[in-house]
Recover the amino acids of this structure.
């Protein structure tokens, strides 16, 4: 049985291949920011705002960027990515169940390649239309990928490594963001000649993933519970874990399948209406909402201004520094998540972010009075990112797969993904207006949201570390049906026993 506890080469390959989709998601999130001024000039030329032989001076760039048509198409280029994700997130369950998790990830890569080609060939057509179209298609792909990847990894990961492997989804996202920030520098690809290639590379990891996915086994849980193929599930378990007796894992899946067969197929509407899954769904949705409404994306929007006000000559490099810290602390989370636990790290992260948001607000409010307050704001930004990646960043993506059994899992991941993408769009679209209205007090809003999220996590989110899917479901069942006083002692003994075994 010991060999079943080791990380086999096949498991490592499968997780690496799956997270290539997450890498594309992160790259697509970050790639659009660095070449903004360059792309706006090409939009202006295409729209007739600037002549074909336009000047590349600062004045012409600012003039082009402020034209209403250019502003509209640029805003659409940024926002359409999230809109594509909102729509496709509802299809995650359908695609995952249609032909399996592996074939599902393989099929959706056609969108990644199509989106990359549209953007990469933008200068050969109408730049503003091709970039908007490419971003929409890429967003559609990323909405599917951001659901399929955690679903697959959550189902194939051994229980003792489930948290660490699940965190790799977020690590791949922040790595993609960092890569896009670095190669988007002016002297690399973020310039007038190379920007289409910079955007087109969004679809490059899809080619590698297409080559590697046929080498990856299907999810044993999908094969056994959804398709009833026990022998194939046993073979896949042995490929993932090496030569060992898979009877214990099969028995666990058998119990999960028996529970799933007691109910009809769980659609998104049934999931929303069902009282059986209400507590799990509330936890999943609130964790995804708190991830986006924490203000992490607003931090990236605002950081360049703060760094500029602090006297840094090249604020873009400071922003890349934030990206580096982002990546490093996601790695820290990979190490800690199966030791400290999901609930503990989420609480530490949300509480720390709340304190940082307050500190940042104080720094912004008194920045004009005391010059050194700019550095207080800068420090708060770096710490904010550190706390985010410790827990609230990576954990919501994979904990949904832990909270739900096989039956409702695809619908739950689709609904949580929809909430994540929608809140992402809301923050990205409306933060500039809220910031203009509230000024230096804008992060007080996020501090209040973070405080509420911390209280909710403390009161409602269970610890899932070291527990089987069945044990996690049983914990929510006990919460719904509080035992009478005379059975409390028995319940506590059973709980202690299951905790000891885990």
């Amino acid at each position: 049985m010991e060999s079943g506890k080791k990380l086999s080469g096949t498991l490592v390959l499968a997780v690496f291949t799956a997270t290539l989709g997450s890498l594309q998601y992160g790259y697509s999130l970050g790639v659009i920011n660095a070449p903004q001024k360059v792309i706006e000039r090409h939009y202006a030329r295409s729209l007739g705002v600037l002549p074909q032989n336009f000047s590349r001076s600062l004045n012409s760039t600012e003039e082009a960027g402020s034209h209403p048509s250019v502003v509209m198409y640029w805003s659409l280029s940024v926002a359409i990515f999230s809109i594509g994700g909102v729509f496709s997130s509802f299809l995650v369950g359908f695609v995952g169940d249609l032909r399996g998790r592996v074939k599902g990830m393989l099929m959706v890569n056609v969108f990644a390649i199509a989106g990359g080609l549209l953007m990469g060939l933008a200068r050969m057509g109408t730049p503003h239309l091709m970039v908007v179209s490419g971003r929409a298609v890429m967003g559609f792909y990323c909405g599917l990928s951001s659901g399929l990847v955690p679903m697959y990894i959550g189902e194939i990961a051994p229980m003792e490594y489930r948290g660490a492997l699940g965190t790799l989804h977020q690590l791949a996202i922040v790595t993609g963001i960092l890569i896009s920030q670095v190669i988007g520098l002016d002297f690399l690809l973020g310039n007038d000649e190379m920007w289409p290639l910079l955007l087109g590379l969004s679809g490059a990891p899809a080619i590698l993933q297409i080559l590697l996915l046929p080498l990856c086994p299907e999810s044993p849980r999908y094969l056994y519970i959804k398709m009833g193929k026990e022998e194939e599930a046993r073979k896949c378990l042995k490929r993932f874990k090496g030569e060992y007796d898979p009877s214990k894992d099969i028995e666990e899946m058998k119990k999960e399948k028996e529970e799933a067969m007691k109910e009809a197929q769980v659609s998104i509407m049934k999931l929303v209406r069902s009282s059986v899954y209400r507590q799990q769904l509330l936890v999943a949705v609130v964790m995804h909402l708190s991830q986006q409404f924490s203000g992490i994306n607003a931090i990236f929007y605002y950081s360049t201004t703060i760094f500029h006000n602090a006297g840094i000559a090249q604020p873009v490099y400071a922003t890349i520094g934030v990206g580096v810290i982002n990546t490093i602390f996601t790695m820290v989370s990979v190490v800690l998540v199966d030791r400290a636990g999901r609930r503990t790290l989420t609480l530490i992260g949300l509480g720390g972010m709340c304190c940082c948001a307050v500190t940042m607000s104080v720094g912004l409010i008194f920045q004009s009075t005391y010059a050194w307050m700019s550095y207080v704001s800068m420090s708060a930004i770096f710490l904010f990112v550190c706390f985010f990646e410790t827990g609230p960043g990576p954990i919501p993506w994979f904990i949904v797969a832990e909270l739900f059994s096989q039956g409702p899992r695809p619908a739950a991941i689709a609904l949580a993904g929809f909430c994540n993408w929608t809140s992402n769009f809301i923050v990205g679209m409306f933060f500039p207006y809220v910031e203009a209205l509230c000024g230096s007090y804008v992060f007080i809003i996020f501090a209040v949201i973070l405080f509420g999220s911390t209280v909710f996590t403390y009161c409602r989110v269970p610890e899932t570390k070291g527990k089987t899917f069945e044990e996690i479901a049983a914990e929510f069942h006990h919460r719904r049906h509080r035992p009478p006083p005379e059975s409390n002692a028995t319940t506590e003994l059973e709980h202690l026993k299951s905790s000891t075994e885990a």
User: Anything to note?
Assistant: DSSP finds 24 helices and no strands in the chain. Residues 484-502 have pLDDT under 50 and may be disordered. Residues 157 and 165 are 7 Å apart (CA to CA).
